[in-house]
Amino acid sequence: MQHLAGSQGITCVIAILFAALACYVPAMRATRADPMTALRAG
C-alpha cells in the first residue's frame, strides 16, 4: 500500500500544478490587455 500512497501524492501534486497553470495563464493575458480596448470590444 505504500507504493499506492506515493502515486496518489504525485498525481495530486501534478493536478494542483495544472490547475494553478490554468488560472495563471488567463490572468497574465488579462493583465496585458488595454482596459479601454477591452471595454470597447465588448
Task: Tell me what the structure shows.
The protein is an all-alpha fold and 42 residues long. It has one domain. It contains 2 helices and no strands.
Structural class: mainly alpha
Return the domain count. 1
* Helix segment tally: 2
Instruction: Indicate the low-confidence ranges by residue numbers.
Output: none
Q: What does the main sheet amount to?
A: none
Number of strands: 0
Order of helices and strands: HH
Shape, principal axes of CA atoms: rod-shaped
Q: Please bin the fraction of helical residues.
A: over 70%
Strand content: under 5%
- Radius of gyration using CA atoms only: 18 Å
Keywords:
42 residues; mainly alpha; 0% strand
List the topology elements.
Elements lengths: L1 H31 L2 H7 L1
TL;DR of this structure?
With 42 residues, this protein is mainly α.
